Amino acid sequence: MENNKKKVVVGMSGGVDSSVTAYLLKKAGYDVIGVTMQIWQEEPECRLEENGGCCGLSAVEDARRVAASIEIPYYVMNFRKEFKEQVMDYFLEEYLKGRTPNPCIACNRYVKWDALLRRSMEIGADYIATGHYARVVKLPNGRYTLKKSATEAKDQTYALYNLTQAQLSHTLMPVGEYSKEEIRQIAEDIGLEVANKPDSQDICFIPDNDYTKFIHENTNVEIPEGNFVDLEGNILGTHKGITNYTVGQRKGLNLAMGKPVFVVEIRPETNEVVIGDNQDVFAPRLYANKLNFMAISDLAGDMVVDAKIRYSHKGAKATIRKMDDDLLECVFEEPQRAITPGQAVVFYKDDYVVGGGSIIGKKLL
C-alpha cells in the first residue's frame, strides 16, 4: 500500500471490517478520515438496528467510538436521497417487474462508490476505502480489476462487479488480504469494542425480512392475485401476487401437488407464476445486459470463464459471447439451478473479475 501521506476516506459502518480497515490504513501511513454514510430515511431509526445493520444510529455510535480510539477525524455524511433513489426505488421497481434484485450491488456502485467517492474527492481525498473482502489490482494491460479475497469463504467480489475503472483506481480494500478471524484478532489486539460484533445480515432497510410488506407500504401499487400455471399453461391454483415469489422457490406455494414443486418462471405481463419439477428449474444458458467489464475493456469472441449467478453460488464453467453492444449469452458446461432474472452474473478468470451483468432470463423473448 503506497501512500506518501495520501488522504483516504474510509466508509465506516460500525462493524469490525471497516474499523480495522481504518486502523490498517492509518498504520500504513495514510491520512485517514472516517465517514459513516447516513442512508436511513425519515422513519424511526431504531427499526433499522435490530440485526446489527450498517445504517442505524448504533452504527454511527460504534463508528464514532472506533474513530476516537484510533485517533482519526470522523464525520457523518447524508446520502439519504441517493440511497432512496438508487437502491430502495430500484428494489421496488424490480420486484414489481417480477425480478429479484440485489440492492447491495446497487448500493455499492451508486452510493458507496459513486456518491461517496465524488464527495470525498471534493474534500481533497485521493482514495476511498471499505471493509470489503476483495483486492484491487492493476493488471499488465493497465486496467484495474478485483481479485478474490485471500479467503474465498468471505469473498465479496461478486457484489462489486460493476465498479468502474475510475472508481477502482481510487479504491483501497486492505482487509482482502486477511481472513475474518485475523481481522477480529487485530481488532481485539488494539482494544476495539467491535472486535466480536456480529456481521450484519439481510437487507439493511428491511430488518424484518418481510419484502412483501415493505413493497406494499412503499408503493401505491396493489399486487393482484393471479394464476399458478404449469409448463403447458394449465392453471394449478391461485398465487398471492408475483412479489411473493422467486425462481427456485419451493416453500410457501401452498399447492397440493402430491410432490415437491418449484417456481420455474415469473411472468409479470400475464401475472402468472410458472410451476414445475426440480429438473425444470435447471437451465443451460442465460442472457445478461447492463454489462460492465473490468479485467478487459470489452469482450471479443468467445471466452471460457467461471460464472457466478448469485452470491452463494460457487461458480460454474461457461462460455460467454456478446450478441449485441449490451447483450451477452452465457452457456454453461452443465445446467445451473435457479437462474434468476434481476440477479447479477459475474465472470471470473482464475481469481480475477472479468466483468458481469444483470440476468434478464434463460431465453431470449
General description of the model:
The chain is an alpha/beta fold. 23% of the residues lie in helices and 29% in strands. It contains 7 helices and 17 strands. The strands form 4 sheets. A 6-stranded antiparallel barrel has the order 12-15-14-13-16-17. Strands 3-2-1-4-7 form a 5-stranded parallel β-sheet, with helices on both faces. The protein has a 4-stranded mixed β-sheet with strand order 9-8-11-10, with no helix packed on it. Strand 10 and strand 11 (272-276) form a beta hairpin. Helix 1 crosses helix 6 (180-189) and helix 3 (80-96) runs antiparallel to helix 4 (103-122). The N and C termini lie far apart (48 Å). Residues 43-54 have low confidence and may be disordered.
Question: Which properties best describe this structure?
Answer:
alpha/beta; 365 residues; 29% strand; five-stranded parallel beta sheet; 17 strands; globular
Write a short abstract of this structure.
By secondary structure, this protein is of the alpha/beta class. The chain contains seven helices and 17 strands.
Category from helices, strands and their pairing: alpha/beta
Number of helices: 7
Largest sheet: 6 strands, antiparallel, barrel
Rounded to the nearest angstrom, the distance between the terminal CA atoms is 48 Å
- Major sheet: arrangement of strands: 12-15-14-13-16-17
Round the Cα radius of gyration to an integer and report it. Answer: 22 Å
Approximate shape: globular
Please tally the β strands and state the result: 17
In N-to-C order, the SSE pattern is EHEHEHHEEEHEHHEEEEEEEEEE
Percent of residues in β-strands: 25-35%
Which regions contain 5 or more consecutive residues with pLDDT less than 50?
43-54
Q: Considering DSSP H and I runs of 4 or more, what fraction of the residues is helical? A: 10-25%
Give the overall pLDDT as a whole number: 91
